[in-house]
Amino acid sequence: MKVLGACTLVLSGLLLASCGSGDRSALEEFGDASADTSANADAGACPATCGGRCTDTASDPNNCGGCGTRCAAGQVCGAGVCGATCPAGLVNCNGGCKDLSKDPNNCGACGDGCGAASACISGKCACTGTTCGGRCVDTTNDPRNCGTCGTDCGTLACVGGTCSCPSTAKTCGMRCTDVTTDPVNCGDCGKTCAAAQVCAAGSCGCKPGLAACGANCVDTSSDPANCGGCGKPCVAGQACAAGACQPTSTMCPSGTRMCAGGCVNTRTSNLHCGECGRSCSATELCVDGNCESYKPLPFCTKCPCAGCGDRCCDPLSSGSSAICVDADRCPSL
Fold it and tell me: What gap in Å lies between CA 275 and CA 95, rounded to an integer?
């Protein structure tokens, strides 16, 4: 049997950084679709945009040195170059070379992130915001400590240290709602996106990694009816793998399995999450083979964000709100 070439699922639209609840966070990249935001968090600006998402090309093994430049299996990305080992002073954290002395997502050790209003200084997290009840918080956006410690906004949002419902939001179900990113109130109260969609800029669109082909959101890397692009079907006796039609007599690459005529990574696919045919709902994303609930964090565009009781992950699309995911790690999208 021949083995198909590496079946890569290059997904766009989601920047993955993470922060835990309270005053700790962790960037937990996994699989072969890792992304990095350490430069974004460290410098306060997006170093590069690849496929519509903010990307640190200095350490992202999927976009090493430039968008679309993927490091080979077993290699790491350091200073924008793929290699066998990290440059001096940097440490390999899931394929990306990090400076543990100042990376707020990997501070002192891989996966040890600094929480809200904290910075990484000499490998240790230090509070740069305000300490309220023993926690380091950002009083400009913390709805439980808005402006000052103990000021609770209730159903309103905390924007610039003031409890309010911005003009860009609407009151849905007695709550201030960011209708630009809420999948169950997308563009207006009560407007719910379909299962394979997310809400971005007030409109429902395909989840990261999926493309709109007609009225459907499909994965062109594995869809035999749209293999490599919309309207590019495989013929009888062929399957779709890595966006190319291959004879069905060949085997799917390691890490993928045959689902509906294509080789799918069920750890990351929102259409085949964990098993063939298991589609995540409009309020779920596939995380390590499980459909996990998520919600937008209104008016906070970059992790860490106050008000997230689970894992904070950076936006699904540029300019959108960050999301709070009910999982131990961020989705690899």
Answer: 26
- One-letter amino acid identity for 193? C
Q: Output the CA angle 71-74-76, nearest 5 degrees.
A: 50
In contact, 8 and 241? CB cutoff 8 Å: no
- Spatial neighbors of 160 by CB under 8 A, at least 6 apart, are 140
CA angle 211, 302, 122 (to 5 degrees): 125
- In the block, tokens 């394929």 appear at 95
- Burial letters 292-331, b for 16+ CB under 10 A, else e: bebbbbbbbebbbbbbbebbbbbbbbeebbbbbbbbebbb
Tokens of 152: 């609770």
For residue 241, what are the CA distances in angstroms to 224, 270, 303?
Answer: 9, 17, 34
Closest residue by Cα to residue 129 from 323, 304, 300? 304
Look up residue 55 and give its two tokens: 């990307």
CA distance 312 to 330: 8
Q: What is the dihedral of CA 290, 295, 296, 300, to 10 degrees?
A: -90
Which amino acid appears at position 113 of this protein?
G
Partners of residue 203 on adjacent β-strands: 200
- What one-letter code names the amino acid at 220? T
Phi and psi at 312, nearest 5°, equal -85, 130
Three-state secondary-structure class, residue 40:
helix
Length of the chain: 333
- Say if residues 39 and 29 touch (Cβ distance below 8 Å): no
Tens digit of pLDDT for each residue in 206-265? 988 899 999 999 999 999 999 999 999 999 999 999 899 999 888 888 889 999 999 999
Closest CA to 36 of 9, 64, 72: 64
Residue ranges per structural domain of the chain: 18-130+297-325, 211-264
Residues 147-173: what's their mean pLDDT? 84
Model confidence at 20: pLDDT above 70: no
Q: Which two tokens stand for residue 85?
A: 């080992």
Q: Is the pLDDT of residue 96 over 60?
A: yes
